[in-house]
Structure formats: structure tokens, C-alpha cells
Design a protein that fits this description.
Layout: H1 3-16, H2 21-28, H3 32-40, H4 47-57, H5 61-64, H6 66-72
Helix pairs in contact: 2-3
Length: about 80
């Protein structure tokens, strides 16, 4: 999945759940700078951050990054 598409999906799900970047970053245990870079698509979201984000937002990893997850055989 292209970084920008993933970035848009992360941002959209975060907003849908009513969280600010700061709130989500705190729940993930990352800095707001890291989350902001991931949401802008300037930093690649690795497997662990994608799984943390999906868990924190209460969604399946497949909803967040279908291509990323299916290519690695990860199941929630």
C-alpha cells in the first residue's frame, strides 16, 4: 500500500474515533512528531505501529492497511 494512502486511512480512522494526534500518540506511546510524520506519509509505518494503531483505534489491521497485512499473513 502506498504510504500516502495508508497515511490518509490512519488520519481518517483517528478522526472518526474522535481522537487528536496528541491523544493517539500518547495512547501509542510515540511522540506526536512520529505520528504526524506517519499521517503525512513522510515516515513509513512499520508493522508494529500499524498493529498498535489498529488495536488502539479498535479496528482490524485489514481495515487500516489491507495490502500490508495480507502480504505478511497477519491476522487479528
Amino acid at each position: 500500500m502506498e504510504k500516502n494512502v495508508l497515511a490518509q486511512r490512519i488520519r481518517a480512522f483517528r478522526k472518526l474515533k474522535g481522537l487528536t494526534q496528541n491523544e493517539l500518540a500518547q495512547r501509542l506511546g510515540v511522540s506526536i512528531a512520529v505520528l504526524g510524520a506517519v499521517e503525512r506519509g513522510t515516515r513509513k509505518a512499520d508493522e508494529s505501529i500499524i498493529l498498535k494503531i489498529s488495536e488502539t483505534l479498535g479496528i482490524d489491521p485489514e481495515e487500516l492497511a489491507p495490502d500490508f497485512v495480507s502480504s505478511r499473513g497477519i491476522r487479528s
